[in-house]
């Protein structure tokens, strides 16, 4: 079986076709476009989530006493604001890297850089997912209360606060899911380099 006439395909012992530079560049180009779109989305929604949650507050009067609810009253929301701010800044840096590589038309072949991107994406993905999980748990208590602990339904009293927090958390959910997808992209970009070297060694 011969693949000598096929573009980008060569023969190795055992007649197994090996795809070389052309296919690698084509796959890398599509991957970078998807990565760029997701990183821009993370950057925009991360800023939006942090802004909505960070500016969230509501004042209510109970028996002539003012009570103000703000995001700092719930440590899980503070954690979520910080996590989304970090994700937005990190994604902005990665957007610049993606744009530069697309302008230059370069393909990621550097293993040290691939490892840095991989670990960075993994760290931010776990950070946003952990923050989102903590905030969701706190929001359930705020919405439903906890009869066993005599915790009241705070959202019945601070409806505006809870609605704005819900909008910020919805943006944060998209950020955390997008970071999870991005981390799979960086994992593929990293480990394909080792597969490429193994194919060349054969």
What are the defining features of this structure?
single chain, 202 residues, mainly alpha, two-stranded antiparallel ribbon, two-stranded antiparallel sheet, disordered N terminus
Quick recap:
The protein has helices spanning 21-54, 75-104, 111-144, 159-201; strands at residues 9-10, 18-19, 57-62, 65-70. By secondary structure, the chain is mostly helical.
Helix content: 55-70%
Mean pLDDT: 78
**With helices defined by DSSP (H or I, 4 residues minimum), what is the helix count?**
4
Report the count of strand segments: 4
- Gap between N and C termini, in Å? 18 Å
- Overall, the morphology is elongated
Q: In what range is the share of β-strand residues?
A: 5-15%
Please write the string of helix (H) and strand (E) elements. Answer: EEHEEHHH
| Global Rg | 24 Å
Give the neighbour order of strands across the main sheet.
Answer: 1-2
| Major sheet attributes | 2 strands, antiparallel
SS-derived structural category: mainly alpha
Regions with little confidence, pLDDT below 50 for 5+ residues: 1-20
How would you describe the overall organization of this protein?
This protein has 202 residues and is mainly α. It contains four helices and four strands; from the N terminus they run ββαββααα. It has helices at 21-54, 75-104, 111-144, 159-201, and strands at residues 9-10, 18-19, 57-62, 65-70. The strands form two sheets. The chain has a two-stranded antiparallel sheet with strand order 1-2. Strands 3-4 form a two-stranded antiparallel ribbon. Strand 3 and strand 4 form a beta hairpin. Helix 1 (21-54) runs antiparallel to helix 2 (75-104) and helix 3 (111-144) runs antiparallel to helix 4 (159-201). The model is unreliable at 1-20 (pLDDT under 50).
